[in-house]
Design brief:
Elements: H1 16-21, H2 23-41, H3 48-55, H4 57-85, H5 90-98, H6 100-136, H7 142-145, H8 150-165, H9 174-197, H10 201-204, H11 216-228, H12 233-236, H13 246-280, H14 297-329, H15 339-360, H16 365-393, H17 398-405, H18 412-420, H19 436-461
Helix pairs in contact: 2-9, 2-13, 2-14, 3-4, 3-11, 3-13, 4-5, 4-13, 4-16, 4-19, 5-6, 6-8, 6-14, 6-15, 6-16, 8-14, 8-15, 9-13, 9-14, 11-19, 14-15, 16-19
């Protein structure tokens, strides 16, 4: 579908305070933030301590700042592009910008990225749940607490993930998001409290240095973890269909995304990353739950099992945008009178694929995540938003060319006016940017694109180390 809602109308500037003053809009933000937090963080909280232990305090924090700001920037670009082109999802936006093939490239990138995330997340469910059960009772049978967690990941998908995936709207995951956030806060508090009580031992003995470069392989892997920890673009865009129309709706999603990336995710990642590495230093495990935080035994086991539940809660936040894209590939007539049945078929197919790959290759799911992430994140989070930006800025997008060719049709002036909002003043032929426009519209997007390419190259390089 090219658009998902009614035509937008021109509106005045909408500030964050304008949004939170209105009860309906404030309620929308309160629904979007938990669901989006669940989708963005997911299993990324588990390896950040290891990444910090490898890069060191200063380097780790610097990489986090750069990647978080870059992702927040491209999210805002996409939302501005959606407003200017009067579209309501990522796929429809790219159709308006570059036509059918650009839309298909976008859809393939989204599906590859999110299916890879679902496969990796499913394998993590089994791994984390196994660690939790073993901490409680080390003599459990192999089929339950061994076998790479196959039984436990299957149980989690069937009992928790599948029912949540049947929600009709993304915003309905808000309560799952709140529960998941409470679990992550519990893990964060456990890490911070233990680290503080032990007086940051790895910082004192310098096994967690200010700058740490143990090996090129470890550094590239750490950059990969940070580089993929903040991607929100494909998860964010479907919310445009579930918020009020117009600039207010765009701003609701924009402010919610900034809150999630720059506050929720950033603070949680930093606290877990810094304080976790400050306890174990070079002995920090790639999965933080393999280190001890609650004196071991039942308490540690319950925490780990709770994190397995959290990973289950996070999976539907990746399934929803995947289903949204795949739904657009199916003929409109397919189960036209049975939308819930259509929903069920797509969801079952996605979860079966993710579980099947994780069951067959439980120990290789990390490589699946690296490959799909390196290609998908680069495309969806960096390359596509920046290419869209340059197309709109230079008046070379499909919708701009069509608007320029039409002399007089109903609504064409409104379309042209909306398109002009993207850069403020349309660039004429042969007119180049000057001064602050050069920095804003050309230099910053180019730097952000370079960040995305660097993270992807770093990720792919880990496959050979």
């Amino acid at each position: 579908m090219e658009t998902g809602g009614p035509m937008l109308v021109a509106e005045k500037r909408v500030s964050f305070f304008d949004v939170i003053k209105q009860r309906q809009d404030r309620r929308a933000v309160m629904a979007v933030v938990p669901a989006l937090t669940l989708g963005i963080m997911g299993g990324a909280v588990l390896p950040v301590s290891w990444a910090f232990s490898v890069t060191g305090i200063i380097c780790g924090l610097l990489i986090m700042v750069v990647v978080a700001l870059a992702n927040a920037y491209t999210c805002d670009l996409l939302l501005k592009q959606a407003y200017a082109t009067q579209t309501y999802d990522y796929e429809g936006l790219c159709f308006k910008i570059g036509g059918r093939w650009w839309k298909l490239i976008t859809e393939m990138s989204i599906v590859i990225l999110l299916l890879g995330s679902i496969v990796g997340g499913t394998a993590q469910i089994g791994e984390v749940a196994t660690i939790g059960l073993t901490a409680i009772n080390s003599s459990l049978p192999e089929w339950l607490a061994g076998n790479s967690g196959r039984f436990l990941m299957t149980l989690g998908i069937i009992v928790i993930v599948a029912p949540l995936c049947m929600c009709k709207q993304f915003r309905q995951l808000e309560y799952a998001g709140l529960v998941g956030f409470v679990i992550v806060v519990w893990l964060t508090l456990a890490v911070v409290i233990k680290s503080s009580q032990d007086n940051l031992p790895a910082v004192r003995n310098k096994s967690f240095p200010l700058l740490g470069f143990s090996s090129i392989g470890n550094i590239t892997q750490a950059v990969t973890i940070f580089g993929f920890a903040f991607y929100a673009q494909p998860i964010m865009m479907p919310f445009l269909l579930e918020v009020p129309d117009g600039l207010v709706g765009v701003k609701i999603v924009s402010y919610s995304t900034r809150i999630v990336i720059l506050i929720n995710a950033f603070v949680i990642y930093f606290l877990i990353g810094f304080f976790g590495a400050a306890v174990y230093g070079r002995d920090t495990q790639e999965n933080i739950l393999e280190n001890e935080w609650l004196t071991g035994g039942v308490a540690q086991g319950v925490l780990n099992l709770s994190m397995a539940v959290y990973l289950c809660l996070a999976t539907p936040a990746m399934e929803f945008p995947t289903r949204h894209t795949i739904n657009g590939w199916l003929p409109d007539k397919f189960m036209k009178n049975y939308p819930y049945g259509r929903h069920l078929i797509i969801t079952t197919s996605i979860l079966t694929f993710g579980l099947g790959v994780a069951l067959i290759f439980p120990s290789n799911s990390g490589n699946v995540l690296v490959v799909t992430g390196a290609t998908g994140v680069c495309m969806v989070s960096y390359l596509i938003p920046i290419v869209n930006h340059f197309a709109l800025y230079t008046n070379s997008s499909k919708i701009q060319k069509e608007a320029a060719e039409v002399i007089v049709t109903p609504g064409i002036e409104k379309t042209r006016a909306r398109l002009s909002t993207y850069t403020g003043v349309p660039q004429g032929p042969g007119v180049g940017p000057k001064g602050k426009d050069f920095v804003k519209y050309l230099m910053i997007p180019s730097v952000v694109l370079a960040v995305g390419l660097f993270c992807s190259i770093a990720a792919l390089s880990t496959l050979s180390t």
